[in-house]
Amino acid sequence: MPTKITIDPTSFFGKCHIYWKTHSYGHKIEHISLLLAVAIYMNKNIYEEELQSAQHYLTSLMKNETDVDNIMEYVKMKLGTYQEDNESWMKDRQEAFNLILKHTDYYGFMSDIFKSDGNFDESEEMFEATLKRLL
Fold first, then answer.
1. pTM score, two decimals?
2. Is residue 5 domain-resident?
3. How many structural domains comprise the chain?
4. pLDDT tens figures, 86-108
């Protein structure tokens, strides 16, 4: 059974600092971090297994553990925002669709995140089916 967790949002200044650090890595990492957050929150639950899978993916991509930790802070900040604001979640989900349509190589790691908790639910299936139709 997947381990469900809750993400605590940070203060305004904390969010600004995390946002600034993430954007300093460039657009590709910014896109990947948004896609990771969307993939983790796709079923409206946050599971430890999905966070670990995201961290492993980032580690293989970036190698530097401090950089990975910074990006994971951003992903967790996004997840906290989604829990508080459904409109933000819907906007980022649409942006994720658009990013994957432009950069099809992003699709693979999102699918890995979906499967990492061992619970491939209907919302994740619908997202993948829609992408497969569009790609």
1. 0.82
2. no
3. 1
4. 999 999 999 998 998 888 888 77
